[in-house]
Amino acid sequence: MVKYGLDYTRCRWILPLLLGIGVIFGIIALAGRGWLESQTLPYVQQASLWQNCRRPGQGGEWSCESLMGYAWGRAAAATYLVGFLLLVICFALAIIAFATDTLRFNFIRGIGGLLFVAAVFSIMGLVIYPVKFSSEIEMTGINMFSWAYGFGWTTAIMEICLGFFFCCLPNYEDQILGNVKPTYFYSSP
């Protein structure tokens, strides 16, 4: 990628591909039931972004309550969902930006800025959820924030990192487009 720049067809799609992976991780976080789980036997609690489920013992029946009845539950879900929707918009814009023959570098920088806004919303939801969940809902046993919550943080970290890539890419416009003369580090004797 360094030698050929973004004109090289296989390297051109790396950033949109990484955004697509971030979208998949966001879907897993939104749909996953493993935001909070019991760490040890008996497994008596399991929560997602949308609901909290408990059971009285190992063989008991799960009973679930919606977290949308709490103001903080709605706030956590809404902010994370807004961040995810902005990520999907950035993914669509990146496909449009990289599908054209000529790269619009100001357009690419705008995608980077939008990714930072998406990261702020995602992180707000990811911080509201554990703070309010652990303070307002009674937890039994030893619990841990689990795999789906981890996918949410992975999505937020990818938004931040890809935001830097999209914002810094226009700084190397001449190198990418091949408008710079090569520099040779050879001196004649």
TrEMBL record:
Q: What is the lineage of its organism?
A: Eukaryota, Metazoa, Chordata, Craniata, Vertebrata
- Which GO BP annotation is one of this protein's? cell-cell adhesion
**A Pfam family in this protein?**
PMP22_Claudin
- Which gene is annotated as encoding this protein in its UniProt record? Perp_1
Q: Which positions, given as ranges, span the membrane?
A: 12-32, 77-99, 111-131, 151-172
Species source reads: Phainopepla nitens
Indicate the family of this protein.
Belongs to the TMEM47 family.
What is the protein name given in its UniProt record?
p53 apoptosis effector related to PMP-22
Q: Does the keyword Acetylation apply?
A: no
Q: State the source organism's domain of life.
A: Eukaryota
